[in-house]
Structures are given as C-alpha cells and as structure tokens.
Design a protein that fits this description.
FAD/NAD(P)-binding domain, FAD/NAD-bd_sf, about 350 residues, FAD-dependent pyridine nucleotide-disulfide oxidoreductase, alpha/beta
Length: about 350
C-alpha cells in the first residue's frame, strides 16, 4: 500500500492489545491508512474472563475480546499483521519526514508511530495455580472475585504488603507469603502491617492442591502447614517491552514508564505511546481511552483540511479535485461497509420495496 503522500501507511501501531487496537480503530475510521504489527500474547490475551469493561460480559475471554477487535479494525480497512517490530528509525530530522518500522523481514515507511507493547508481569517460581484460576495479576480487576474468601499475596516488597492490606477491604482472611525470602518492605510498612490483621507466612511453598474445576484450593508449606486459598496476587514487578523505547531514547518516568502528554505524545515528535507502557492504571478501559486520545490527536495532525491561511497562501484554494483526502483503498472499504450511510439508504429502499 502507498498513501497519497508517498508513505506505505499513515500510521503504524506496534502492539495489538486493547490500547493499540483502539488507536488503530480511531485512525482508520478517521481516514488514515493504518497497519497494526502485533507479536501476539500480552496481558489481555491471558484473561480467562473479562472484567470491568462495560457492555462485555464475564463469559468473554481476553482472546475472544482481542479477536473481535482485530476483525473490527480490519473490517474498517486497517491492516493487521503478526510480527515482531525490531526497530523504529526516524527518516529525517523533521517529524514530517516520518519513520521506518522494521520487523526484520519487512519494513514500512509511515508518518506516525503508536507504541503499545505493554509489559510482562514477573511470575514467581512454581508451584503455582493456573493464571485466572487462583493466580491473578490485577487487583482492580479481580478483588471482587474474592469477597469473603481466603486470599494470599506473594512478595517481599512494599507493593506486596500494601496489596495485602488493601485486600482487607474485601475479606478478613489475607496471608502475605514471603516464600522463604527476607522481607524488603520499609520500616513504616512493617509498622502498618503490625496494625492490620494480615498473617505473614515466611515458609516456602512445597505443594499445591486444586479442585476438580482447576481452581486453587490450598498451598502446602515446608513447615508442614496446609493453608486454604481461593486465589491471590503475586507482586514481583514487571518488565516493560522497551527495546524500541530505548533505541528512540524516549523520556521515561521514575518507575520506567514512557512519559507522555494527555494525547499520548512522547518526547519524540510523531511517536505516541499508549496502554501499559505509559503511567496510570493498567486497565482495559483506561488503555482504550488512551488509544482513542492518541488516534484522534494523530488525525488532527495529519488531516488535510481545513487548510490554514498559510497553507492557502502557499498551495491555493482547495479544489474539487483535492477532495476527499481519504485514500482510494480506505474510501472503497468505507463505502462498502455496512455502517456507511449510503449502504443504510440502500437497505431502507430494499426494505420499503419488500
């Protein structure tokens, strides 16, 4: 594909989670030729059920949610490709020179780039229950599941201690498992723990018991204890997928997230970041909102009209031959799409004729 301005695509989205796919949804529906390059996997793909997404029921898995989203953006005219982006390189010194996005096998020249690679949660050593069946990484998503149930939190740092105390809002049975490691939380946190009914279990886990449905029932410990749990949260940090972030030398926050403005613009003009790669709550609705903001911002940067007074002076008036500015490929897809106003008129006429 070649856009009207000579690039392969207007926008390349690196990553195919909720944030990246929402960015692509907006850029495509706002008339920009868009490619999504997705390595697969990710946090959302691990979800057995979807929580906290209004209008989406618990029975929808993360993979089903993502598959529907991929089909949506492709239906609007975006291209989706499985692959690992290895490099993003500026094509010049000016933002309008664009970027080259390379997968090792293919490369694409684009006007704007959206980074949506997210991060990977660090897993503790086994024995562990299956993810989503007693092993959970998102308190905001899953605390509701454990109301009035026995819960564990694994870890030795301040984050683990705080999550254990937070879970007391939902249940009176919370254990903090250090798994034989020395606690690393601060003295202040230790004092807080002493004043909350959280049991700190220092023994290492040696075994695990699951029910017939695959859910965790209990852990066995090297001191002979067997303690029942419905599930819990490992708190061992996460690793950003940040090779491209480093190569572009993007500004980062103190905790390693990519620094962005309210539209997702990074410290490098023309490069946006959305979702778990950026500061804020790691939630699907939040990621979708960030993706939408970035998509709209990119549309405003790249849309041809209205021409400014300076552009009119340099290029002249907009003529009938100049409009519309949407590419012929996207225009054809939009006209044929079931949501097109013309298609709706045709359906109404057909219904009236019947």
């Amino acid at each position: 594909m070649h856009t009207e301005n000579g690039f392969d695509y207007d926008v390349a989205v690196v990553g195919g989670g909720p944030a990246g796919l929402t960015s692509a949804l907006y850029t495509t529906r706002l008339g920009l030729d868009t490619i999504v390059i997705d390595r697969g996997g990710g946090r959302a793909a691990m979800m057995r059920e979807t929580h906290n997404v209004i209008g989406i029921g618990e029975e929808i898995s993360g993979n089903e949610l993502l598959q529907t989203a991929r089909e949506q953006i492709q239906g609007y005219g975006a291209e989706y490709q499985r692959g690992l982006v290895e490099d993003v390189t500026p094509l010049g010194d000016d933002v309008d020179d664009g970027y080259r996005v390379s997968t090792g096998e293919e490369s694409y020249d684009v006007c704007r780039v959206v980074l949506a690679m997210g991060f990977t949660d660090n897993r503790p050593e086994p024995p562990l229950p299956p993810t989503g069946r007693g092993l959970h990484y998102c308190l905001h998503c899953d605390a509701y599941m454990f109301v009035d149930n026995p819960v564990y939190v694994m870890g030795t740092g301040d984050a683990a201690a705080y999550v254990a105390m937070i879970m007391l809002n939902y249940t009176d049975d919370v254990d903090l498992l250090t798994r034989g490691e020395e606690p690393e939380w601060s003295d202040d946190t230790a004092t807080m723990l002493e004043h909350h009914p959280v049991d700190v279990v220092t023994a290492e886990i040696t075994g695990m018991n699951k029910g017939e449905n695959g859910w965790l029932e209990s852990f066995e410990f090297d001191d002979g204890q067997v303690r029942a749990y419905s599930g819990g949260f490992p708190m061992y940090g996460s690793d950003y997928h940040d090779d491209i972030v480093d190569s572009l030398d993007l500004e980062r926050t103190d905790d390693g997230a990519v620094a962005v403005d309210e539209h997702g613009q990074t410290s490098v003009a023309g490069v946006y970041a959305v979702g778990d790669l950026t500061p804020g709550h790691n939630q699907i609705p939040v990621a979708m909102g960030e993706g939408a903001n970035a998509g709209i911002a990119i549309h405003k940067e790249l849309r041809a009209f209205p021409r400014s007074l300076e552009e009119i002076e340099a290029q002249g008036s907009v003529t009938d031959a100049d409009v519309p500015s949407i590419s012929s490929t996207l225009a054809s897809t939009a006209v044929d799409h079931e949501s097109n106003a013309g298609a709706s008129d045709d359906r109404s006429k057909t219904a009236a004729d019947d």
